Amino acid sequence: MAQRILMKGNEAIAEAAIRAGCRHYFGYPITPQTEIAAYMAKKMPKIGGVFLQAESEIASINMVYGAAAAGMRVMTSSSSPGISLKAEGLSYIAGSDVPALVVNVQRGGPGLGGIQPSQSDYFQATKGGGHGDYRMIVLAPASVQEMASLTIKGFNLADKYRMTAMILADGTIGQMMEPISFEDAEIETYEKPWALTGTNGERKHNVVNSLYLKPEALEVTNFQRYERYKHIEQTEAMWEEYMMEDADICVVAFGIASRVAKNAIVAARQEGIKVGLIRPITLWPFPKAVLNKAADQVKGFVSVELSMGQMIEDVRLATECKRPVALCNRCGGMIPSPDEVLESIRNAEKGVF
């Protein structure tokens, strides 16, 4: 039997990062993710790693950029306002095609908002986050176990495709405790001949840069980058299906909202309503194909979110508006209750969207 450890979600991310080979962490404290930095501050010096609390979020993301350019597995973490401050650096990292892992344990907004859980950074994460044409791989854990396993997966994908991967969690998953195991972790390694490691006179100098003064060259680079993104969309989308075999209604939810939704689905099934769940695990690439296929089966969708309705736009795009999509949401740090989700399911069953 696999050994299981009781851990908080934020601590699971930190421990998983260390086990994945991360030896450089740069960050700045902000609720509700500060335990990640605290864990790294305690553990990194003991394993020969680097922990540095930067003077700001802006400084920390640029330190990530430097370590990533040298080929290191490197991570930073923050919460919603802090991620906004990192946006310029995220764009530089994307423009330089270097890998890094960024963790966002979301809180309510906009502005300073509050410190309670939210999912209102969906647009920011899945549509880029900073300036220019680029994408990030966005992974959305729904358990403490996934906080760990998707952190390792994020490092693997970042290195594989030379791009930023983001763990988009919410404050609830970050703060809750569950037993987890690291025994099935699959840690991949990739050669990095592009890295700034010093030449020792044995090769040409590498250059890591995001500046292209000739527009023709920048255009070619962007087209090439998006060919890579297209391949990722075709091969790396991840999702979970729950009770979808005979479903007439499909609930779409991620993170803590998906756990609430499952309780509501069980209750709806007891009432005779055939309802299931599709949980996106990758928010980008979004699991378009499975949702489009579901649109040929069900009569409608319910998007359950801790926001004013952001993922619902991708659900509508993925299903090509074949079926109506209702929104069940709370925001500002509030979480929909199973009863609220159940009521939305009942309405959808009646054709009320």
How is this structure best described in words?
The chain is an alpha/beta fold and 353 residues long. The protein has 2 domains: 5-235, Thiamin diphosphate (ThDP)-binding fold, Pyr/PP domains (Rossmann fold, 3-Layer(aba) Sandwich), CATH 3.40.50.970; 240-349, Rossmann fold. It is 40% helix and 19% strand. The protein has helices at 9-19, 34-43, 57-69, 80-85, 87-96, 122-126, 144-161, 171-175, 215-235, 256-270, 288-295, 311-318, 338-349, and strands at residues 5-8, 24-27, 50-53, 74-78, 100-106, 137-139, 164-170, 177-180, 239-242, 249-252, 275-280, 282-284, 300-305, 325-329. The chain has a 7-stranded mixed sheet, with helices on both faces. Strands 9-11-10-13-14 form a 5-stranded mixed sheet, with helices on both faces. The longest helix has 21 residues, at 215-235. The protein is globular, with a radius of gyration of 21 Å. The mean pLDDT is 96.
According to CATH, what is the topology of the largest domain? Answer: Rossmann fold
| Strand coverage percent | 15-25%
CA-based gyration radius: 21 Å
How far from one another are the termini? 46 Å
Q: Strand sequence of the main sheet, in spatial order?
A: 3-2-4-5-7-6-12
Mean pLDDT: 96
